[in-house]
Design goal:
Blueprint lengths: L2 E6 L9 H8 L3 E4 L1 H5 L7 E4 L3 H13 L18 E6 L8 H7 L5 E4 L4 H9 L7 E3 L5 H11 L3 E6 L5 H11 L5 E7 L7 E5 L1 H6 L6 E7 L36 H11 L6 E5 L5 H9 L4 E6 L2 H13 L5 E5 L14 E4 L6 H11 L5 E6 L2 H17 L3 E8 L2 E6 L2 E6 L3 E8 L3
Parallel strand pairs: 1-4, 1-5, 2-3, 2-4, 6-7, 11-12, 11-14, 12-13, 14-15
Antiparallel strand pairs: 7-10, 8-9, 8-10, 15-19, 16-19, 17-18
């Protein structure tokens, strides 16, 4: 006997294909939620209201074991004695119950009849291709998976909302992350039903409005704005929030997080009237912090990516700074053209760390410092090898390393959890006065 798993939408029986509808109509046992069962009149067949799928599967297996087995050469069609039909929402193999059913019932006894998934309907309503979208369901790792995708700044995210993981829950998480990447939020409610509603909502609207439990939130990454107002007077002088910066489009990792940025500034030991290089400047967050703290200093923000250079120029313009100079080019070649620095921060190297350090050491003024923020062991090993060789030849060099592991608190529904930032090794290399 076959167990048919039939996907169904909010349009009920009217949305089923003729073949799927026939399977349901001829079932000897119909299993589903109260809502799904209500789409089909009671015709005297056995019906189970689905409350706990695991218990239902055990009962289905028992029910299957009690049925007489057909002879191998029997031609009796299954509809002569009925079949089992489980009614589920949408596509059972897309964030549905299909995985659990396959694990508990022999695959040769299962047949799936998928309906359009709510995510598919959402992107079709928005008329947006969705083959490259990322999905977050209501599974146990909801917050971890959504946080990871937001930090990566993926272009399209579809979030399946329910009674506990509501659009407001999503909005609280986005707000707490305080990321430089901006998103549009499209809330798609009751897709496929007469009460269907699709609309663009702001972050504050997600927090303040009520939405249908059966909804999909589609998040679309916004391009960096050409102009955006910024009330600089309300920002802290030290430790600017990450969200105050315009991100680098598809490369959000080019932003140095606020907590790490503050530690880097401390290690640089900045003073007034200095020349500072920010090598691999990303979106310019470190350069802008320095330029605001020391308006008498000149800060060169060197970045090889076009998206990063554009973000730097957007950001220092929004902050109204005149002492940040955006340099689009590749280190170390571009460094020979700049004024000798008192301080150097290296946030990215593009794989040429040894050569960059060599040029930086050559151009760095006596009494100056180089600070690096490193995330991989290989870069730490490269720096230690370089500084060890340098100290043997020029003993007026020294170094120190700070290992930083930080976590931020995040709202996880009604609870609060810690979200870890990437561990960073901050290496400070000092060139002492001869």
């Amino acid at each position: 006997m076959t167990v048919h798993v039939v996907g169904i939408g909010l349009d009920g029986a009217a949305g089923l294909s003729s073949s799927a509808l026939q399977v349901v109509e001829t079932a000897a046992l119909l299993v589903g939620s109260d809502r799904h069962l209500s789409y089909f009149p009671d015709r005297g067949r056995e019906r189970w209201a689905l409350e706990d799928l695991t218990e239902a599967i055990l009962e289905i297996r028992r029910w299957l074991g009690e049925q007489p087995q057909l002879e191998p050469d029997a031609e009796t069609v299954e509809t002569d004695r009925g079949s089992i039909v489980i009614l589920v929402a949408g596509d059972p193999l897309f964030h549905g119950w299909g995985k659990l059913l396959i694990a508990q019932i022999p695959p040769d006894q299962l047949t799936f009849h998928p309906h359009l998934s709510s995510v598919q309907l959402a992107f079709n309503r928005l008329q947006i291709p969705w083959q490259d979208a990322h999905f977050v369901g209501s599974q146990a790792r909801y917050f971890e998976e959504l946080t990871a995708k937001l930090k990566l700044g993926v272009e399209k995210i579809a979030v399946l909302a329910d009674e506990t993981r509501t659009p407001a829950t999503l909005a609280n998480l986005v707000k707490a992350l305080d990321l430089p990447t901006r998103y549009e939020f499209w809330v798609c409610e009751n897709l496929g039903s007469a009460e269907e509603r699709v609309g663009l909502r702001s972050l504050s609207a997600l927090l303040g409005e009520s939405f249908a439990p059966l909804s999909v939130v589609v998040m679309l990454r916004e391009p960096p704005p050409r102009a955006e107002s910024l009330d600089v007077e309300k920002l802290p002088l030290l430790g600017i929030p990450d969200a105050a910066f315009i991100g680098c489009g598809d490369r959000p990792g080019l932003t140095v997080e606020r907590e790490v940025r503050v530690l880097v500034l401390a290690q640089l030991g900045l003073q007034r009237g200095q020349v500072v290089w920010d090598v691999g400047a990303g979106n310019g967050s470190v350069s802008i912090e320095i330029a605001r703290l020391f308006p008498q200093s000149d800060v060169y923000a060197i970045e090889q990516t076009v998206s990063g250079t554009l973000a730097i120029e957007f950001n220092y313009g929004r902050f109204g700074l005149q002492n940040v100079f955006s340099i689009h080019g590749t280190a170390p070649e571009i460094l020979h053209r700049l004024r000798p620095p008192h301080r150097i921060f290296i946030g990215g190297s593009g794989g040429g760390l040894t050569k960059i350090l060599g040029v930086c050491a050559l151009r760095l003024l006596p009494g100056g410092s180089i600070v690096l923020a490193l995330e991989v062991f290989e870069d730490i090993a490269t720096v230690l090898s370089w500084i060890g060789d340098r100290v043997r030849r020029e003993p007026h060099w020294s170094y120190r390393i700070m290992q930083v592991q930080l976590s931020r608190s995040l709202s996880a529904g009604s609870l609060t959890r810690f979200d870890a930032l990437n561990p960073v090794s901050i290496v400070t290399i000092d060139r002492h006065l001869n």
